[in-house]
Amino acid sequence: MPLTNELRDDILASVPSLRAFAISLSGNGDRADDLVQETLLRAIANIDSFQPGSNLPAWLFTILRNLFRSDYRKRRREVEDAEGNYAKTLKSQPSQTAHLEFEEFRTALEKLPQDQREALILVGASGFSYEDAAAICGCAVGTIKSRVNRARSKLSALLYVDSAEDFGPDNTVRAVIGGNGG
Amino acid sequence: MKEVKKQGGLNAEIQSRIGHQLRAMYDDVVRQGVPDRFAELIRKLDGPEAAAAAVAGGGDTDKNNGGD
């Protein structure tokens, strides 16, 4: 469809969530904004192929996701360097506990396989349905569900392994003691 | 006896903490709104041709921070 003012506004309204998705995927603010910019340019360049009435955010997310994927291998080393710099910036602000916790979570997220990370973000943060997430990633709905589950398990192991062990053995021990001692 | 799921399921509390942190991280960026550079970019592009030219030109619009 043509680039109407209404469509322009709708695209603009998607920018905050596109940025959040891009930052979650790439782990780097500058890189994320470049991705968003390229997504916007490509979306508008190909606006004729957008079906009026279909899901505009999902269409934009698909473009961003594909750009990230096609660019990812080329840029991987560069991104790693940028992450190192990002971590240094954070260490210079030791008082900001929230930022450190935030960084810890982000670091764990970075360790997930890319398939699982994007599925988890789309469903768990962007609020897309499993069906929309499957369309964005070009895979089956069941595949998305299993990626999300695996992502959650892995994050839990990375972040909360200590507390998970606290829950497990403690309860087992208590149960055993309770059962034997009467 | 209280049972804790160890395999095939996540502790509900941990799962809710993960969901909460994920959304907190995401929403922190969403709340930043639309940076000027993107509002300006979309305003400047009058159609698909202009956008296609910007893609082909390597998107040098991001260096162009001046403006009204």
TrEMBL record, chain A:
Residue span, RNA polymerase sigma-70 region domain: 15-77
Cross-referenced Gene3D superfamilies: 1.10.1740.10, Winged helix-like DNA-binding domain superfamily/Winged helix DNA-binding domain
BP GO terms, sorted: DNA-templated transcription initiation
Domain RNA polymerase sigma factor 70 region 4 type, first and last residues per copy: 103-155
The UniProt record lists the keyword Mitochondrion: no
GO molecular function: DNA binding; sigma factor activity
Coiled coil: none
Keywords, sorted A to Z: DNA-binding, Sigma factor, Transcription, Transcription regulation
NCBIfam families: PRK12540.1 (NF009192), PRK12547.1 (NF009199), sigma70-ECF (TIGR02937)
Family the entry assigns: Belongs to the sigma-70 factor family. ECF subfamily.
The protein's name in its UniProt record: RNA polymerase sigma factor
Organism, as annotated: Bradyrhizobium septentrionale
Automatic annotation (TrEMBL), chain B:
Top-rank lineage group of the source organism: Bacteria
Domain Anti-sigma factor NepR: 15-47
InterPro entries reported for this sequence: NepR (IPR041649)
Name of the protein: NepR family anti-sigma factor
Species assigned in the record: Bradyrhizobium septentrionale
Top-level taxonomy: Bacteria, Pseudomonadati, Pseudomonadota, Alphaproteobacteria, Hyphomicrobiales
